[in-house]
From TrEMBL:
The lineage of its organism: Eukaryota, Metazoa, Chordata, Craniata, Vertebrata. It comes from Hipposideros armiger (Great Himalayan leaf-nosed bat). This is long-chain-fatty-acid--CoA ligase. Residues 110-143 are annotated as: Disordered. It catalyses: a very long-chain fatty acid + ATP + CoA = a very long-chain fatty acyl-CoA + AMP + diphosphate; tetracosanoate + ATP + CoA = tetracosanoyl-CoA + AMP + diphosphate. InterPro entries: AMP-bd_C (IPR025110), AMP-bd_C_sf (IPR045851), AMP-binding_CS (IPR020845), AMP-dep_synth/lig_dom (IPR000873), ANL_N_sf (IPR042099). Residues 110-123 have a biased composition (Gly residues).
Length: 633
């Protein structure tokens, strides 16, 4: 009898062993799913309350307006922002943004007065009406038409409190904000301002001198120019902060900012421009609302102190960092620039409990504490969270998670740069351990709004007929791997993976192998075209770890033992520091364009000589031999 009872268990044992790698994480999957559903319920309740609020009340406005008003009422004295020696409570943030809103409304010619309508504010309403005429005259004097509801104002500011007050104020005034990357000048700057249809530009005083050559073009575009500071400015640039400080700090009516639809654009954030000119991604009111739930999904609480050293013109800094902080009512320590040497001192001084980073930022820190990895894109409709804390993962692909936040990994052909399709024309899902293109279905709850400008800018970002006729998916352009336990790991960007000797080479895998060498501090791997060869050959830009020197013999031994031969870097470039974007992404496209010509580059260059089994200095003679086909790589 006992044997008969054991027999079914023995028969089921192989199935149980097969399912165990996935089911062992069921408790964590359930816990995160419950957290996600609670977060959605909380945000929905807040949105419904705002929709039902008095239109004259600030809590009847856009999500930024009503959330700030709520926090100023619920936690007025709690510290919202720390920047250097300055600290601002939620009540102070509300007052500062109200002043900014009124300054922008003055530029709009709004006659509503401090109370937003009739009643006890009558005298001030008369003052506002008179001021409106003065504002219109000022704008007409510099050739710019007054602002209208829904117009776009561009911010060209470093990470500072004034950036936030002006952004929040614009939102309350019913204006759109465009976050312009602070390094842009000349053609790229003008391109960004044109693409988002900016009507005005607010710039930092310290940027005025470097922008002087651009001022004639900016004025020719009909832009009104403001500076965020009292320093002496060229003619036609007024001090916005002086105008803001002259305003009263009473709330403005919510109807001024309440959107007609949550899909309406309220913000433009520019892509990093690593593959061309930046594109203005449209950010909807819905996405701003969803970003209020970011830190709640991460498990952070209102008692946490968040360390934010990211550019505010980047989604990770503004929407996830700042709006996410508003979502839980926590404190954010804002740094204008990241400093590895200052980091730990800051954490101790301010009691930091959460550190948000992107790109290469965490590599700058040594012995960092465990971190929760997430994945997302500025314009994307999908995100993942490593809620189990699994090392090296950016999330999980459990059926529970994919039910709440649906996505798929599909096979991708590196040669054609397109997803692989079967005989029916449908995409094919990847198997465990196989790199695949991350795609997510486009829906009303997870839309893709595209970019400001022509529809051609979004070409390739939407895939149709992915799994069934008529479906539409967002193409992230990123390759991820899902292992047998359901953990997701970032593999590479589609543009970074290259083909050499008939094989696909993932730059991230090569970089990880090279970083194991103790004499290397930073590595950037990319593919370069070589005349007479198909595909792209691997090249690695290297930064040495002081006080080490480059050991080419050890380098060759290491790559030959740890990488397949097709993935060995064919070229090496020794640098003092690696080029990166202001959002800490490595500059692969620019480096690839610079190539490996020793007559054009001053950095030390090396080439892999397969015949000798060694890396040699890339001299002009060896470069000529390579082009002639006499040097085999």
């Amino acid at each position: 009898m006992a044997a008969l009872l054991l027999l079914p268990l023995l028969l089921l044992l192989p199935l149980l062993l097969h399912l165990w790698p996935q089911w062992r994480w069921l408790a964590a999957d359930l816990a995160f799913t419950v957290r996600a559903l609670r977060c959605k319920r909380t945000l929905r309740a807040r949105a419904l309350a705002a929709a039902a609020a008095d239109p004259q009340s600030p809590e009847g406005g856009c999500s930024l307006a009503w959330r700030l008003a709520q926090l100023a009422r619920q936690r007025p004295e709690h510290t919202f922002l720390v920047h250097g020696a300055r600290r601002f409570s939620y009540a102070e943030a509300e007052r500062q943004s109200n002043r900014a809103a009124r300054a922008f409304l003055r530029a709009r010619g709004w006659d509503g007065g401090p109370g937003g309508g009739g009643g006890p504010g009558g005298a001030r309403e008369g003052e506002r009406a008179a001021g409106s005429g003065a504002a219109r005259a000022e704008w007409e004097g510099d050739g710019a038409a007054p602002l209208a509801p829904g117009d776009t104002v561009a911010l060209l500011l470093p990470a500072c409190p004034e950036f936030l007050w002006l952004w929040f104020g614009m939102a309350k005034a019913g204006l759109r904000t465009a976050f312009v990357p602070t390094a842009l000048r000349r053609g790229p700057l003008l391109h960004c301002l044109r693409s988002c249809g900016a009507r005005a530009l607010v710039l930092a005083p310290e940027f005025v001198e470097s922008l002087e050559p651009d001022l004639p073009a900016l004025r020719a575009m009909g832009l009104h120019l403001w500076a965020a500071g009292p320093e002496t400015h060229p003619a036609g640039i007024s001090d916005l902060l002086a105008e803001v400080s002259a305003e009263v700090d009473e709330p403005v009516p919510g109807y001024l900012s309440a959107p007609k639809s949550v899909m309406d654009t309220c913000l433009y954030i520019f892509t990093s421009g690593t593959t061309g000119l930046p594109k203005a991604a449209r950010i909807s009111h819905l996405k701003v609302l969803q970003c209020q739930g970011f830190y709640q999904l991460c498990g952070a609480r209102q008692e946490d102190v968040i360390y934010l050293a990211l550019p505010l013109y980047h989604m990770s800094g503004s929407l996830l960092g700042v709006v996410g902080c508003l979502g839980i009512g926590a404190t954010v320590v804002l740094k204008s620039k990241f400093s590895a040497g200052q980091f730990w001192e800051d954490c101790q001084q301010h009691g930091v409990t959460v550190f948000q980073y992107i790109g290469e930022l965490c590599r700058y820190l040594v012995n960092q504490p465990p971190v929760l990895e997430t994945y997302g894109l500025t314009e994307g409709n999908v995100a993942t969270f490593n809620y189990t804390g699994q090392r090296g993962a950016v999330g999980r692909a459990s059926w529970l998670y994919k039910h709440v936040f649906p996505f798929s990994l599909i096979r991708y052909d590196v040669t054609t740069g397109e997803p692989f399709r079967d005989t029916r024309g449908h995409c094919v899902a990847t198997s465990p351990g196989e790199p695949g293109l991350l795609v997510a279905p486009v829906s009303q709850q997870a839309p893709f709004l595209g970019y400001a400008g022509g529809p051609e800018l979004a070409q390739g970002k939407l895939l149709k007929d992915v799994f069934r006729p008529g479906d539409v998916f967002f193409n992230t352009g990123d390759l991820l791997v899902c292992d047998h336990q359901g953990f997701l790991r970032f593999h590479d960007r589609t543009g970074d993976t290259f083909r050499w000797k008939g094989e696909n080479v993932a730059t991230t895998e090569v970089a990880e192998a090279l970083e194991a060498l103790d004499f290397l501090q930073e590595v950037n791997v990319y593919g370069v075209t070589v005349p007479g060869h198909e595909g792209r050959a691997g090249m690695a830009a290297l930064v040495l770890r002081p006080p080490h020197s480059l050991d080419l013999v050890q380098f060759y031994t290491h790559v030959s033992e740890n990488l397949p031969s097709y993935a060995w870097p064919r070229f090496l470039r020794l640098q003092e520091s690696l080029a990166s974007t202001e959002t800490f992404k490595q500059q692969k496209v620019r480096m690839a364009k610079e190539g490996f010509d020793p007559s054009a580059l001053s950095d030390p260059l090396y080439i892999l000589d397969l015949a000798r089994g060694a890396y040699l200095s890339l001299t002009p003679a060896r470069y000529t031999a390579l082009l002639a086909g006499d040097l085999r790589i």
